[in-house]
Amino acid sequence: MVSPELLRRFPFFASLDEKQLEQLAMISHEKDYPKGTLLVKENTAATLLALLVEGDIDLIFSGGGEGAISNALVGSIAPGEVYGVSSLIEPYRYTATVRATLPVKVIEMDGVALRVMVEKDAKLGYIMMRNVAIAVLERLKYTQVELAAARA
Amino acid sequence: MVSPELLRRFPFFASLDEKQLEQLAMISHEKDYPKGTLLVKENTAATLLALLVEGDIDLIFSGGGEGAISNALVGSIAPGEVYGVSSLIEPYRYTATVRATLPVKVIEMDGVALRVMVEKDAKLGYIMMRNVAIAVLERLKYTQVELAAARA
Known about the structure:
2 copies of one chain form a homodimer.
Chain A: H1 4-8, H2 18-26, E1 28-33, E2 38-40, E3 48-54, E4 57-61, E5 72-77, E6 82-83, E7 97-100, E8 104-110, H3 111-120, H4 122-151
Antiparallel strand pairs in A: 1-8, 2-7, 3-6, 3-8, 4-5, 4-7
C-alpha cells in the first residue's frame, strides 16, 4: 500500500475524505519502470487504474489491424494524470497502449478491487466516476484539438 | 416532462431504477429542431445534457482562435448517444459546438437540476457519472481512431 497522504497530493483524488483515501491507499502500490516499458497493452483486460507521478508516457493506438493505421501516437500523459480508466468502465479492456517515454514512477491501483469498492459505496463511486469522467473529457478535448490540427 | 418509459428505451439510462427514471423524466423535455440548428455552442455555459433520438449531429471545434484550425469537424453523434456531458463536469462549459445536420428530435435534461440531483443522491450520481464516463470514453476511442487515420 501507499500512504493516504501521497494520494491526497493529486487533484485526481480531490474531494475524497480521509476514510476513502485510506481505502484507496490500501489497494495502491508505488512502482518504478524503466524508459520504454509498455505499462498497459491495448485490448487486454484492464486490471489497473494508475496515476503518473514522475516521467512521461505516450498513448499509442494500434489501428486495430485496419489497413494503413499502425501504432499511431494519439496522446500523452503528464505527471498527475491517470491512465487505465477502462479498469472502471465496461467491458474493462484497455483502449490504447501506454508506453513510458522516460523512466517513470507511477501509483497503480488494483482495478478489480476498485470496482468492488465503487459498486458497494455509491459516494466513493460517484466521486471516482466523476473524476474519471473529468480525466477522459480532458483527454477528449486534447485529442479533438490534435485532430482539428491534423485536418487543417 | 417526458415519460419514464421514453428514457428507459435508451442504453444511456440503463441500470437506473423506476424512481430514478421518474426523477430524470421530470426535468426532461422532448424537442424538435430543424436542420442546421446550433444545439450547443462551444465555450458557453453548459446547461443541458441531451440525448439524440432521431437525426444526425456534428461536433465542431472552433480551434479556440489558435491560428490555422477553424471550425474543424471532430466527431458526430448518432441516435441514442448523448451530448452536453460538460453540464455535469466542472467547469460546466461546452467543449465543442453541436450542429444538427438533419432535422433532429432530442431529449433535453435541465443540467442545473441534474447537478443538484446527483450531488444529493450518490446512487443516482454514481450511475449517471459512470454512464457519462462510458459515453466520453467511447467518443475518445472514436476520436483517437480518426486522429490515427489523419496522421497515417
